[in-house]
Inverse folding.
């Protein structure tokens, strides 16, 4: 299939009460793991590349890999830019064939975030590309958030309402207590805040930093209306854990395929589990 846009997978997810996984890829094996998982689970899927992944693999390579994988698959695939903070790079991704981009203006004051996101949307929409934005600050796991800091860092539901109305963005990443990377303790999600945001706006909601979040919390987030769930760290750990195990057991191996094939299978296994957890398995 050709690449599809966010709305093509998030619309049915919102109606069906499930979420679609957005899995980060930075090499061929991880792209293959994601696509094979989606096909085997009959799940729509979002493959996303961060600015770091693009720097590592090269924009043309990422696009060619994902397009090739999508063309050979019979499930809907979105190619999405994750956390684009640079306007020019967001434009390059659109030009090179991404079907969806995230413009991350979360560090900007609200007005400027609205302005920049709207600029991206005007251009993206003209060429049929969807846009995700971010409001609030999704920290790293090292950030220890106190109760007083919550209100300053987490997404303000009223601001979410204004932001969604003014921009008409296709999906909104919110800060409710998740963080990118490996958690030190158990993450505590602010579900009342998520509920309030959903009451005030009908924009599809994105949960970042979802690796390491307990399954029950993920289920609750989906029930409360999260429709895109980002996973990177869990894939890295599965992939690298298996690769390290292989090298320990086969220190003399000089064939990269013998290392990468089991690493890919390990990544695929965790991705399939996530698709079942999010409820997207069987929906394509
Ligand atoms: P994790 O690395 O915590 O899974 O977060 C991924 C993410 O949110 C990418 O935007």
């Amino acid at each position: 299939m050709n690449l599809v846009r966010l709305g093509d997978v998030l619309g049915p997810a919102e109606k069906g009460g499930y979420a679609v996984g957005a899995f980060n890829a930075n090499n061929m094996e991880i792209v293959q793991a994601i696509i094979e998982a989606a096909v085997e689970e009959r799940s729509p899927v979002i493959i996303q590349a961060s600015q770091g992944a693009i720097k590592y693999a090269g924009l043309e390579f990422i696009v060619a890999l994902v397009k090739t994988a999508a063309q050979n698959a019979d499930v809907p695939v979105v190619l999405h830019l994750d956390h684009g903070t640079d306007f020019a790079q967001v434009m390059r991704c659109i030009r090179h064939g991404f079907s969806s981009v995230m413009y991350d203006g979360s560090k900007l004051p609200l007005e400027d975030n609205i302005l920049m996101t709207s600029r991206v949307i005007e251009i993206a929409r003209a060429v049929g590309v969807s846009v995700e934005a971010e409001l609030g600050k999704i920290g790293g796991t090292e950030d220890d958030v106190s109760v007083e800091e919550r209100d300053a860092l987490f997404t303000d539901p009223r601001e979410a309402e204004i932001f969604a109305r003014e921009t008409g963005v296709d999906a909104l990443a919110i800060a409710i207590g998740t963080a990118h990377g490996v958690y030190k303790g158990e993450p505590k999600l602010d579900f009342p805040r998520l509920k309030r945001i959903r009451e005030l706006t009908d924009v599809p909601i994105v949960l970042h930093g979802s690796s390491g979040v307990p399954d029950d919390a993920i289920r609750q987030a989906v029930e409360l209306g999260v429709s895109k769930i980002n996973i990177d760290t869990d894939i890295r750990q599965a992939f690298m854990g298996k690769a390290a195990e292989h090298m320990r057991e086969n220190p003399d191996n000089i064939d990269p395929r013998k290392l990468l094939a089991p690493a890919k299978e390990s990544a695929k296994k965790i991705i399939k589990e996530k698709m079942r957890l999010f409820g997207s398995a069987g929906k394509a």
Remarks:
- The chain is about 50% helix and 15% strand.
